[in-house]
């Protein structure tokens, strides 16, 4: 008994000692700045002169700021597109790699991961060539298949800029989810598939009635990862369109950057970030709860 | 694992579709590589064709002037500093989370998970204020500290997952011998943790190398800019010579790709380990 309590004391102390450097560091450069952003969001401040206390003024302005809300909606659209074009597409690809062409899974995985490794700035710069209105590959491809009438300056026109950015994102981050799902799909026991094969199930049936329910935890975790990543997105948008033209592809991060470091409205920029974070937490939580329920449903189908 | 499957029509179709898809995904990179061997005239004549000659002019053009080399050195310094801090802190903390379970540990895990979800730009304005106050704005250290902090939580979870795989008897045996907890960490845990620390280091090196938001905001002096930030300047200045521009992009992209080629196993393990908690 006394040995137990002394070990509990000793481990408590050791845990504090080993954890405190990391915790202090994260507190100083993550938690404290976030709280500080909440404080700064109450002021009008250009970053140099005396801050002027506004109270909730920045948030009132934010509530009526159409550009902010449109940017936030675009972040949500990015998240939804990521769930479909990255998470679910990756699940299908992972099934194919593990179950249908396992001999090639390693080489495919390698190439799918190449864009995950390279800086988003490099990727964005390369895609600016692909989308180039004069010699870009996208336009050349359209001409080649007789759809020359659809040629346009994809990143430079308000109607297409955001979609063009989303396409690049889905190509860029897909590989991460393929990797995560390959690991999950490999963990599904072979015997389950064998039982289904005896019943004459084809790949479609096996995918939807075995793989999807069996890896549903991974689907949920990866969707959450995709949502969080989508709300964080900055570099690709910055380098492809910088939110333009005329805010047509603006996301919250690029808007904050412009407000804080273009217009030097530091207080308002802090308010944008703070509001975004609160809405992010709320959104992630709701999505998580909701998918738990779908997950229970998917389990029941199998 | 998976039993050997008989090759059939489905396999052929799937292989063809996947091949076409993966080619689309990596074509920009493939195009970048072969285009750097063209001269600007050849590039202007036909943008998408393979090079007829094998010219290294683009690399000479990109490297001359020395700007890219300077950016690369800055990136290297920031990468080394941030990675070092993150690995040390994450190893200590990951060990603690795996080896000790006081009642308050789940609260620490939860707050680390929450920290992972926070977009870095939320902290951007306050960090500028803090760094300016500390005289660290426009310095390498000013980028290193927040960058490391934002990479610590996920790195802790990767280390914790590794330490969780170790049998607890290992530490108990050392305790029986009268070793202090610090000795146990130093003499028992640390030597076997080296591969996991290396894994965490590799992924952090890639993340820091590619990072853009903090360096672009915190650094103004051209002589201190990192490669991705400097690259955007470089591209603006070399708008007329596309092969030189592409060679510069390739130079910025090559370091993570080389790491990936050599350490694919460690990197994929770290990404899977980090995502499980995410």
Textual characterization of the structure:
Chain A is mostly helical. Chain A has one domain: MetI-like (MetI-like fold, Orthogonal Bundle), CATH 1.10.3720. Helix content of chain A is 77%, strand content 1%. Chain A contains 13 helices and 2 strands, in the order αββαααααααααααα. Chain A has helices spanning 2-40, 57-63, 66-100, 105-117, 120-130, 137-144, 158-186, 190-198, 203-214, 216-232, 235-240, 252-261, 266-301; strands at residues 43-44, 52-53. In chain A, strands 1-2 form a two-stranded antiparallel sheet. In chain A, helix 10 runs antiparallel to helix 13 (266-301). The longest helix of chain A is centred in the N-terminal third of the chain and has 39 residues, at 2-40. The radius of gyration of chain A is 24 Å and the shape is flat. Residues 297-302 of chain A have low confidence and may be disordered. Chain B has helices spanning 9-35, 40-45, 57-63, 67-99, 105-117, 124-133, 140-164, 169-176, 181-210, 213-218, 227-237, 242-262, 264-277. Chain B contains 13 helices and no strands. The model of chain B has no long low-confidence stretch (mean pLDDT 90). Helices cover 76% and strands 0% of the residues of chain B. Chain B has 2 domains: 9-60, no CATH class; 65-277, MetI-like (MetI-like fold, Orthogonal Bundle). Chain B has 278 residues and is mostly helical. The chains are: A mainly alpha (302), B mainly alpha (278). Chain B: Keywords: Cell membrane, Membrane, Transmembrane, Transmembrane helix, Transport. Chain B: Residues 72-263 form the ABC transmembrane type-1 domain. Chain B: This is ABC transporter permease subunit. Chain B: One of its GO terms (biological process) is transmembrane transport. Chain B: One of its GO terms (cellular component) is plasma membrane.
